[in-house]
Design brief:
about 700 residues, alpha/beta, seven-stranded mixed beta sheet, seven-stranded parallel beta sheet, 23 helices, globular, binds adenosine-5'-diphosphate, binds magnesium ion
Length: about 700
């Protein structure tokens, strides 16, 4: 057995278990080993019956003075055992359908019973407690049992069994980290780390194990980024064009805009032009807060590439956003004429288009009858064959994996690559995470914008908020109302949105058009609603977070978010970014349905500031270092064990170590001589980088 062995080849894993484990992302033994516990259960010193507290998981110790009783009901057999001191507290232990327990317990022996203490009808009970002899338990004292994240059908017990089996059979003696790196950063050995992260002997070992594995994860990531960068650096610019701007199509497009570009936009545009004119192919990240105006930069770059006779492609994470970009490009380019006298041809390509529509689009793309292709990840599907792709742009990069970005750039023949992201991460971090890219920051909002006015209020304010929305509609504006995501069930989520809409229609005058949008609707239906909302045929849009990314309807001035405390701060900031995109004053209303003080503290951060960087900083302060395995928020910047913010120090060390790692350890780029590190990196690039969303 090795890390690449399939999980289905393990003992005790049948087809059904295989499928369930796949849901947790476990397909190989390596995946299993890297499926880290989310917490640990510690065996605490056992107590007597009068120390039991309802609601706590406790270990009760007692000598057995009599055999338990067996109660047989129709289909149920219950073993019960009453323990306690005469006159003191007593507790009843119960086991269901486990009659053999009776004979396995010996009178006169000392046992430990461990389970959740509950109070039922004034009596203390413990149902289905674990049973251990006092001696066995003493051995396990302070041992930590892993608690894994689960899914229906996969028990903690099963994972413990599989992980122990894998640990016993794997040869973990092969250390892949270069010796000097391990010594320099005082890291535990690999075999120690993997076994102690799953079954730590004590907390100290667990922390040492964790430190090593976090280091590994960041180190491999940094090396992988370096591989990508080295690949990019030797790639020549096949689409070289002049950097002049005067008198060009781009220049006249820029002058035709209803507004001047901000200084930050101008600077970014210059950087892009310079890249395109240089000897090396462009790989640039455009980072800018919501509403900073990234789209127009994409438009300029796309115009430049198609004026030079090549094709450009823009990939968006959702159908709604792709469609919206398509519409606005058609509108904005209406009067644009390329140097050869043609108008730029724009084509939409999304998953929901009919087979016939897609075929037509493929043909236009292949024959270079279209200059600009806008779409969802349909644009990187195998069937799409580009005539002469010179530039690819991904919008809202944080919704795509590192791999998807690579895929797109592999589509043409080394096209220029531009990625746009609103993730507000500090520059130092961006430099590490996007180490293979050059970075432009749009750190300025258009001048005429009025800052959004915010408030966080309780549910009693809901009616007032609706009334306020009505007034805004009467002034010609529009509003969004967001109902929260229901993680377990898309159906329930849709139901919420539909019910809310019905209520709102009751409460508002009939001439105000209210519609809803949720994940279960067909793409076509969603697009249609977005189009009507963009055209102000709908005044109030009740929606799930499907509108979160990138949607641009500048006439909307109110964003009302129900159950706001249930969202992450970054996500709330994204949602709020849907308003305040035009000249009119905009408002954001956070409805807080919880009475927890932490909830209002968190929302207060957003009320106080509209600055994404400040919010990201506060967010990480609030998460605090207490949360050992990090808060898994909205899938953003999620490593398997490392936490970008709380493990920042390890991240920096790992980055330094990666920068200093030289031959002979780092063979990967030479086609992989078989050093352990090269092998590990190869497997990392194949397995993990693919799913890492940054
Ligand atoms: P984001 O960076 O969030 O993608 P968009 O590109 O969608 O932002 O721009 C948001 C809105 O701001 C759009 O309506 C756009 O037309 C407008 N806009 C962009 N740049 C400027 C500017 N320099 N001055 C005024 N408005 C601008
Ligand atoms: Mg955008």
């Amino acid at each position: 057995m090795n890390m690449d062995s399939l999980i289905r080849d393990m003992k005790g894993v049948g087809e059904k278990t295989e499928k369930l484990l796949a849901k947790l992302g476990i397909e190989t033994v390596g995946d299993l080993i890297e499926y880290y516990p989310r917490n640990y259960d510690v065996c605490e010193p056992p107590v007597k019956a009068d120390m039991l507290v309802p609601g706590k998981k406790q270990a009760l110790t007692s000598v057995l003075y009599q055999k338990p009783e067996l109660l047989s009901l129709k289909k149920l057999q219950i073993v019960t055992l009453k323990l306690g001191s005469p006159g003191g507290l007593s507790v009843t232990l119960k086991w269901f359908n486990m009659p053999y327990i009776r004979s396995s317990l010996n009178v006169g022996e000392k046992y430990v019973f461990r389970g959740l203490v509950a109070e039922k009808k004034g009596q203390l009970v413990m149902e289905q407690p674990e049973i251990m002899t006092f001696e066995d338990y003493t051995q396990k004292l302070d041992h930590m049992q892993p608690i894994y994240p689960l899914t229906a059908g996969v028990t903690n017990h099963l994972l413990i069994k599989l992980v122990s089996q894998a640990l016993a059979q794997l040869d973990l003696s092969k250390e892949f980290l270069p010796d000097q790196v391990r010594r320099k950063y005082h890291l535990a050995e690999y075999n120690f780390a993997v076994s102690q992260i799953h079954f730590p002997e004590n907390k100290e070992n667990m922390l040492r194990a964790r430190q090593r594995l976090v280091f590994d994860e960041f180190y491999l990531f940094a090396l992988a980024v370096r591989c990508l960068k080295e690949k990019h650096e030797v790639t020549a610019n096949l689409y070289k064009m002049s950097d002049d701007s005067e008198g060009t199509v781009c220049e006249s497009f820029r002058k035709s805009l209803a507004y001047p570009l901000t200084n930050a936009q101008m600077r970014t545009w210059q950087e892009i032009r310079k890249d395109m004119a240089s000897d090396k192919v462009m790989n640039r990240l455009i980072q800018g807060d919501v509403g900073s105006g990234k789209t127009v930069i994409a438009q300029l770059a796309l115009l430049k590439i198609c004026d030079a006779g090549y094709q450009g492609c823009l990939m968006a994470p959702t159908e709604v956003l792709a469609k919206q970009h398509f519409e606005s490009f058609m509108r904005d380019f209406e009067h644009v004429v390329l140097s050869d006298g043609r108008k730029p041809a724009v084509t939409l390509l999304t998953g929901s288009m009919t087979a016939k529509e897609k075929r037509e689009a493929y043909a236009r793309i292949k024959n270079h009858e279209t200059d600009i292709i806008i779409g969802t990840h349909a644009v990187i599907q195998e069937k799409v064959d580009y005539g002469s792709l010179g530039l690819v742009i991904t919008d809202e990069q944080h919704r795509f994996g590192v791999r998807q970005r690579e895929f797109l750039s592999e589509k043409g023949e080394s096209p220029h690559v531009m990625v746009m992201s609103a993730t507000p991460i500090p520059r130092t971090l961006a430099v590490i995470l996007y180490g293979d890219l050059d970075i432009s920051v749009i750190d300025e909002l258009p001048a005429k914008r009025l800052p959004i006015k915010n408030c966080a209020v309780g549910t009693s304010y809901r009616r007032t908020a609706w009334h306020f929305i009505e007034q805004q509609v009467r002034m010609g504006h529009q509003a969004y109302i967001i109902c929260p995501m229901v993680e377990e069930s898309e159906l329930m989520e849709a139901q919420n949105v539909v019910d809310y809409t019905a209520q709102l229609r009751q409460a508002m005058p009939e001439d105000i058009v209210i519609e809803y949008l949720h994940g279960r609707q067909k793409a076509k239906e969603k697009n249609e609603i977005m189009e009507r909302f963009a055209g102000n045929e709908i005044q109030v849009l009740v929606s799930t977070t499907v509108v979160e990314v990138g949607v641009n309807v500048p006439n909307a001035t109110v964003m009302m978010i129900e159950d706001a405390q249930r969202f992450g701060l970054a996500q709330l900031h994204q949602l709020r970014g849907r308003v305040g995109r035009g000249d009119a004053q905009s408002y954001c209303i956070f409805i807080n349905t919880s009475d927890q003080p932490e909830a209002s503290d968190r929302l207060e951060v957003l009320v106080k500031s509209n600055d994404g960087f400040y919010i990201a900083g506060e967010d990480l302060k609030m998460r605090g270092p207490g949360d050992l395995f990090g808060l898994r928020q909205s899938g953003l910047m999620e490593f398997k064990i490392g936490d970008l913010f709380n493990d920042m120090d390890i991240l920096k060390e790992a980055k330094d170590a990666a920068d200093q790692t030289t031959e002979p350890e780092f063979y990967y780029k030479n086609g992989g001589q078989n050093t352990p590190l090269a092998q590990k990196l190869d497997s990392y690039m194949r397995r993990t980088l693919e799913s890492l969303i940054l």
